[in-house]
Each structure stands twice: as C-alpha cells, then as structure tokens.
Amino acid sequence: MIIDKSQVKRILVISLSNVGDIILTTPVIRALAKEFSTARIDVMVGPNGKEIFDHDPKVFKLIIYDKHMPIIQKRRLQLKLKKMKYDLVVDLRNTIFPILLGPRYRTGTIQKFPKELVHRKERHLYRLNSLGIGNLSERSYLYIPVEDEEYISNLLKEYNIREPIVVVSPGAKSHLKRWPQDSFAKVCDRLIDECKINVVFIGLKEDEDIIKAVMSKMKKKAHNLANMTNIRQLASLLKRAGLLITNDSAPLHLGCASGTKVLALFGPTDPKKYGPTGEFDAVIKKELFCSPCESATCRYNYECMKLISPDEVFDTAKMMVEGYG
C-alpha cells in the first residue's frame, strides 16, 4: 500500500519494552522524521524507553505504556489515543492498537517477513517499506543532550580517565550469555599493557558484583563506572570510546547507536538477529551444533561462550583499536 504523504500530519509509533529492543526501533523514527519532516511523531513505549526518548527532538510526545497497568487504565489510554486522530500508526509489536485507533494508514497487525530479513532492525524498517517509505539501511540513534555530555566529561575528569578508552560490559541478563570472568580479565590486562589504553567497565547495579570479580582477577588497574550513568550518559561515554567489548546485552545496541566500534561475544543467541550492524563492528561466535539455541537453560555447560578464547578476543580488539577493523 502506497500512502499519500500529504495526508500524514500525526504519527504514532508503538515501540517495545526492553532497552536493547527499543534502540533497535529508533531507525524507524529516524526514517519517519525524514519522510514526514513537518508531521508530529508520538511514541508509545514501555517504562524503559523514557530515558531514551524524553529529550529526543524527533519525538513530540512520549506515551508510557506499562503492560502491568490495570485494564481500566489501558482502556482509558486507548480512548485518549483515539481522540488524537492519528493519520498513521506504525506498530512494531503486533498489538491490536492500530485497529482500535482507526487511523487513515497503519502497518499490518501481523507481518510475514521475507526469509532473508532476519535482523530485528531490518524487520522493523520493513514495516515502513510495506507502506512505500524508508529504507533498510537506516541507522539506530540516541539523542544526547548537552547536559549529559557535560556530565560524562566531568565524570572522566573526576576519575582521571583519559583517552584512548576501551569500554567493557561483562554483564548480561542471563548467565548463559556471559563470557567467563577470567577471560575478560585476561583480555583487559593485555589491552592495558600492550595497547596502552584505559579500560572502563560499565553496567547496571546488578552487574557490580560481576565487574568487581573481573577486576579482582586483573593485574592491571581499570576503572569501574557501573551504575553511575543514565542511558543517555552511557551513550555519551561510548561515543568517546575507541571500542566496546560486550556480551549480547543492551550496551551492544547503545554502542551501535553511539557510532563506536563494537566487538560482540555471542553464544546461545543469534547475531544474525541481534548483532551489531556497523561497518567496522565484529562478532566472535563459536559454530556449535547446538548454537544458537536461544534457550534459558543449557545441557552443555554453556560451552559456546567458554570456547571463545581470550587470545582471539584480544587479537580482534587490538586490530579494532589500532584502526584495522
């Protein structure tokens, strides 16, 4: 279906809930802002999306949708949105909202994707292609206000952290996606010793024990900035880094949005779906008969992560920080 762009004045984008998933939807907003430069774009997103969009000049209004809210609140929200009379609703999570709101144009409630479109970013953009707009190469992004840039400048000064910097994220929601702590420690020691760079660890509050464990196994001094930034500030830090080394977790997608090089370590999950998409990014993954299983449990003691060697990660990281990757 080809739409009449002149009729599109109000747009609603229904985004996702987890930080990494939300960032993978930002290319859609970028594409819409290009196609409809004078239109109002509202975004409905889970609570984790507030920090991502609440300063974004491309987003006119941010609507927080908590799936745990009472049914009566959901009904009120639906009625409120219907009164907005949106011309276009882009639904990235296959809800019934587009039908209930009755816009002039909408993306399909259930979308069947071409087999070659595996990556989630491309699938989100394909929904726009079905309306005759956008392209599959649109990049993810995250708007960073000046005050967040200044916060990171001051934080780096406070902890006497100077460039060049390699940021390391050893955490992940599932322990099955975490590369061993000993391996992270070995790589970080070699980066500091042989490449003369500063290693900065990042993570959430729940990652602090993992980071402390990695640092306790290191011989060299590294810096721990875990739980000291919001999402936008973390993106600002990543912008200044020469490289991000990470498991399959939200910082991977923040790194892509920030434009820094990403070295991603994959095991049970599929980089074809969720991997970094930058020209100079790299993925290290062991091709095992059972991987990617995308399972919450493992019968094989998560060998897919253990088999990734520190030497392989260091060699790749060294090439990337020295400009050969």
Cα Rg: 21 Å
Helix content range: 25-40%
Number of domains: 2
Strand order of the largest sheet: 8-7-6-9-10-11
How far do the termini sit from each other? 41 Å
Label the overall shape. Answer: globular
What's the CATH H-level homologous superfamily of the largest domain? Answer: Glycogen Phosphorylase B
The CATH first-level class of the largest domain comes to Alpha Beta
Task: Provide the β-strand percentage band.
Answer: 5-15%
Count of runs of 4 or more consecutive helical residues? 14
Integer average pLDDT: 93
Number of strands: 11
Largest sheet: 6 strands, parallel
CATH topology of the largest domain: Rossmann fold
Describe the structure.
The protein is α/β, with parallel strands linked by helices. It folds into 2 domains: 5-129, Glycogen Phosphorylase B (Rossmann fold, 3-Layer(aba) Sandwich), CATH 3.40.50.2000; 146-321, 3-Layer(aba) Sandwich (Rossmann fold). The chain is built from 14 helices and 11 strands. The strands form 2 sheets. Strands 8-7-6-9-10-11 form a 6-stranded parallel beta sheet, with helices on both faces. Helix 7 packs across helix 10 (231-240) and helix 8 (181-195) packs across helix 9.
